[in-house]
Amino acid sequence: MIKGMIFDLFGTLVSNHRLFGPVCEKMAKDGSADLKELENEFVRLYRKYFKDYHKAAFQPEKFYYYLLMDEMIKKFNLSGDIESYCNYMYSSFGKLPAYPDAKILKKLFKEYTIAIITNADTSFVNEAIRNNRIPYHVLLTSEMARSYKPSCEIFNRALHLMGLERDDVIFVGDSIRVDMMGAAGAGIKGVLIDRSRSYPDYAPRITSLEELQHIDL
User: Fold this and answer.
1) Which SUPFAM superfamilies match (predicted)?
2) Cα-based distances in Å from 32 to 36, 88, 206
């Protein structure tokens, strides 16, 4: 019997559409580069610095973003500094809107122990959750846990804080590599939220969080 649900945050409960758009728009104003070129390079550097970062000695996400920002500033001769760009980006993360179907958590919150775990620094996570009024019983960021998904440590810590066993919970996330593989490695049943319908053969899979009311596990 399922007693608890663990949710990823960005891409699952909160939209991550054009996640780096606002900071790249600011950079475009501070230099002469094209916005599209800035966004493409930002994403490339993100993949470079965040690839397998869960395997390294823990550093908060800001550590990697500082390295990324430094490269962006040098490559595009931007007038801003690392700290101001990172603060601006973090502020924009906190303003990201929840998906409309995330409102189902208000109902699920009354029936299950709800936890949120996310690969993110705590400051903008708190802001995003507060701005969107997302209910939860347990919140665990990678910065709090000093661990990143798909490592099992952050999942184990969440279970401990929830006071539940692995068989008592399901985990809902939008990434197969990070979320589903992470949950599987921790012995937790994973449910993929696939709004874009990109993985029709994956199971268990939902296309809306509202389906959690009726999903057969």
Assistant:
1) HAD-like
2) 12, 19, 43
Please determine, for residue 216, whether its predicted confidence score (pLDDT) is greater than 80: no
Rounded Cα distance, 54 and 182, in Å: 11
pLDDT digits (tens, 9 = 90+) for 92-129: 999 999 999 999 999 999 999 999 999 999 999 999 99
pLDDT digits (tens, 9 = 90+) for 200-209: 999 999 999 9
- d(CA 50, CA 56) in angstroms, rounded, equals 10
Cβ atoms within 10 A of the Cβ of 63, count? 14
In the sheet that holds 205-206, the strands lie side by side as: 138-141, 113-118, 4-7, 169-173, 189-193, 205-206
Nearest of 67, 103, 68 to residue 209 by alpha carbon = 103
Nearest C-alpha neighbor of 150 from the set 188, 98, 123 = 188
